[in-house]
Amino acid sequence: MSNPSPTRRTPAQNAVLEALRHHRQPMSAQVLYSAMRSQCSIGLATIYRSLGVLQKLGLIQHRVTRKGTTLYSLIKHERHCMTCLHCGQSFPINTCPVMEFEAELRRSSSFKIFYHTLEFFGLCEPCAYQVF
Amino acid sequence: MSNPSPTRRTPAQNAVLEALRHHRQPMSAQVLYSAMRSQCSIGLATIYRSLGVLQKLGLIQHRVTRKGTTLYSLIKHERHCMTCLHCGQSFPINTCPVMEFEAELRRSSSFKIFYHTLEFFGLCEPCAYQVF
DNA sequence: GTTATTGCAAACAATTTGCACCCAC
DNA sequence: GTGGGTGCAAATTGTTTGCAATAAC
After folding, report:
1. How far A80 CA lies from chain B's nearest CA (Å)?
2. Residue B76 pLDDT
3. Distance of alpha carbon B66 from alpha carbon B123, whole angstroms
4. Residue span of the structural domain in which A101 resides
5. Which residue spans within A11-50 are E strands per DSSP?
6. CATH of the domain at A42
7. For labelling alongside A70, which of A7, A20, A89, B119 has CA 20 to 30 A away?
8. What's the rounded Cα separation, in Å, for the pair B83 and B91?
C-alpha cells in the first residue's frame, strides 16, 4: 500500500509522466512499458512505482477495466462511461454530473480529493437482446 | 468475458445470492468461498461463474478495491466512497449525486443500466499531512 | 439420454517484492 | 560513502479455463 515517501521527482517519474502526456489516452502499466521500452531503458516495476507516486502527487488518475487492468492518464480528461457486463465494451459519456458535488465535498470535508471515477454497468443493446 | 448463456437460475447461483443477502455487505469471491464452504460444498470457480451471471441478471453489483479485489453485493445498497491513495482506507459517502443523471441516461440511451460506481480518490487528512 | 452445471487443478495475468547495483549528492 | 532510485527475476494474488464427473430434466 505504501511506496517510499518521495523526496523530489525522479527521472523515471518524469519519463512516465511524459509518456502519458504524449499518448493522451489512458494506458496500462504494461502498455506504457512496451511503449517506453523502445525509447529508454526502464523496468516494469519502476513504472508501477512511479505511477503510485504520481498518483499521490495528484498528477495522474486511474480507472480499472473489467478485466482488472488499471489504466492511468493525466488528470483532467475525465471521461466516464457505461460498460457492458456481457461483451465488456465501454461507451463514453461526455458529461460529468459530479463536478458540483465534488466541489461541495472539497469544501465540507478534510479529505483532499484529486479525482473521481464514475461508471455505469449493465447491458448494451445488442447484448441485452442476445443474452436472455 | 462471456459466460455461457444462462437458461434458468442454478442452485449455485441461488446459494451465492442467498449468501450475499445474508451477509449484507460487499464481499469478495474468495471471502464468499470460505463463508459458503462451511455450509455447503461449492467450488471457487463456480462462485466466480455464478457472480458473473447474477451480475448480468441485474441482481448484484460490484466494485473494485484499491488492491484489485472485486467486491460483490446486492443491488441497492449504493454506497459511494472516498479512497485514500496512500493508506488505502475508504470513507463512505452517504448521498448519491448521480441518481437523477442515471434516470435521465436510462431514458435517453438504449443501454440497459443496472447500477453505477462512483469513487473519489485523493489523500485522507493524516496521510496528506504525512506523505509530503 | 442429452445437456448444462459443477469442482478441481492448472493456467494466466497484473502487480508487488527482494535484492543487488548504481548514481547523485 | 551513504541513501534513495532502478532493473531484474521471483513471488504473490485474484481470476479464468480445461476437463472429467455429476446432476437436472
Report:
1. 10
2. 78
3. 13
4. 77-132
5. 27-28
6. 1.10.10.10
7. A7
8. 6
Residues B68 and B11 in one domain: yes
Model confidence at B1, in pLDDT bands (50, 70, 90)?
Answer: very low
Domain co-membership, A64 together with A82: no
Integer CA distances (angstroms), A31 to A35, A78, B32, in order: 6, 20, 33
CB A42 within 8 A of CB A51: no
When the pLDDT of each residue in chain B is averaged and rounded to a whole number, the result is: 88
Give the closest residue to A112 by CA, choosing from A69, A75, A67, A57.
A57
Is B118 in contact with A123 (Cβ distance < 8 A)?
no
- Best interface-test mutation with A: which of B28, B55, B112, B115 has the largest number of A CBs within 10 A? B112
Number of domains chain A contains: 2
Residue A1 has pLDDT above 50, yes or no: no
| Helix or strand holding residue A83 (H, E) | strand A80-84
The answer to whether A50 and A40 have CB atoms below 8 angstroms apart is no
Largest interatomic CA distance in chain B = 55
Domain end, chosen from B34, B50, B75, is at B75
Q: Which residue has the cell 462471456?
A: B2
pLDDT tens string B92-131 = 998 999 999 999 999 999 999 999 999 999 999 998 887 6
